[in-house]
Amino acid sequence: LLPENTDRHVYLTPAEADRLAKAADPLTADMIRFAALTGLRRGELLALRPEQVVDGMLLLDTATKSGRPRGVPLPPQAAAIARKRLPWGVTAATLRKRYQRARIAAGMPTVRWHDLRHTYASWLVQAGQPLTAVRDLLGHSSLAVTHRYAHLAPAHLREAVSTLPRLGGVR
Fold it and tell me: Are the C-beta atoms of residues 118 and 13 closer than 8 Å to each other?
């Protein structure tokens, strides 16, 4: 990227996320799927303990980037992975090596772990979820940070314009 353009936005499709997971060993595959289904940062994911899953919610304490606790509802597949795998039992270095092998095997050598977080947000926005919900799920400090995903949901703009009154004389 050029110095004046440091933003990098990579969003995987569900098929691409699945291809990446299928190229990994079973544990790493589950971690990839879990990250894409929860939007957790790598450090948040690695620090998870089974007792943080309560009634289908993942309860994160203040050991997050924002320093604020948050709850993340788990979709059924992520809840099943959590029951099966937590704690993960791998270090950041081990995960990095395993992920590197998986992304190369999947033919996706430039896809970073953090892109799974962006993917989660993009899926929510494309499904019509409000940016305020995405902000809260990701634990962003402000809506301005989450706004980078707004362009993924142009349908709400069409819907807004469709509410304008019809003026006479123009067909």
Answer: no
57-60 and 53-54: which strand pairing?
A: antiparallel
Judge if the upstream peptide bond of residue 14 is cis by omega within 30 degrees of 0: no
- 52-85: pLDDT as tens digits: 999 999 999 856 666 678 899 999 999 999 999 9
CA 32/CA 17 separation, integer angstroms = 8
Alpha-carbon distance 48 to 4, whole Å?
A: 36
**In a 10 Å sphere around its CB, with 0-12 CB exposed, 13-18 middle and 19+ buried, how is residue 122 labelled?**
buried
Question: With bands split at pLDDT 50, 70 and 90, how would you rate the model's confidence at 149?
Answer: confident
Token couple for 130:
């409000």
SS3 72: strand
| Residue 39, both tokens | 């939007």
pTM of the model: 0.85
